């Protein structure tokens, strides 16, 4: 497989009604992680750590430019504070349809920033909602 850039990626986020909205044009950058918990099980007879892998998790932070148009970023994220619904998030970090990572997330905030230079941007953090292990689809 050839190395590639993150150009041409795509992200969709479900609105409060469950409809997937592709907001790729409104995103400027994103970050996500898929950590695993670990339990230290080191006995007193060891000179190095022993660990067990525990639960999988997923968290993300989406960043973008304010867009008040219908079915775009503001319409999707403005309901975060007033609804308690799980949102499907589909991340395709490169152009094409694979690899893809899909998770059901609880979005926990919709932070809007107006910088002193005039930019109006937002940030939305989210966490895994449903106990499904984050799994990449590669083919």
Describe the protein.
The structure is a single chain. With 139 residues, this protein is mostly beta strands. It has one domain: Pnp Oxidase, Chain A. Helices cover 4% and strands 45% of the residues. The longest helix has 5 residues. The mean pLDDT is 95.
Which key terms come to mind for this protein?
139 residues; mainly beta; Pnp Oxidase, Chain A; 9-stranded antiparallel beta sheet; two-stranded antiparallel sheet; 1 helix; 11 strands; 45% strand
What is the strand content? 35-45%
Q: In which range does the helix fraction lie? A: under 10%
Strand segment count: 11
Largest β-sheet summary: 9 strands, antiparallel
Count of distinct structural domains: 1
- Low-confidence stretches at least 5 residues in length (pLDDT < 50)? none
Oligomeric category: single chain
Strand pairing plus helix content: what structural class? mainly beta
Shape: globular
Q: Provide a count of the helices.
A: 1
Report how far the terminal alpha carbons are from each other: 12 Å
CATH domain topology: Pnp Oxidase, Chain A
Q: Quick check: average pLDDT?
A: 95
Helix and strand run = EEEEEEHEEEEE
CATH class: Mainly Beta
User: Rg, please?
Assistant: 18 Å
- Could you say what the CATH architecture is? Roll
């Amino acid at each position: 497989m050839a190395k590639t850039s993150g150009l041409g990626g795509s992200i969709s986020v479900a609105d409060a009604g469950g409809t997937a909205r592709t907001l790729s044009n409104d995103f400027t950058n994103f970050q996500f992680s898929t950590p695993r918990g670990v339990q230290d099980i080191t006995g007193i007879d060891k000179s190095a750590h022993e660990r067990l892998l525990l639960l999988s998790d997923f968290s993300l932070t989406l960043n973008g430019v304010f867009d008040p148009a219908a079915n775009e970023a503001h319409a999707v994220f403005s309901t975060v504070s007033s609804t308690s619904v799980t949102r499907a998030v589909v991340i395709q970090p490169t152009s094409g349809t694979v690899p893809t990572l899909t998770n059901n997330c609880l979005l926990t905030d919709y932070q809007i920033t107006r910088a002193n230079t005039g930019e109006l941007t937002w940030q939305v953090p989210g966490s895994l909602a449903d106990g499904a292990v984050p799994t990449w689809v590669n083919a």
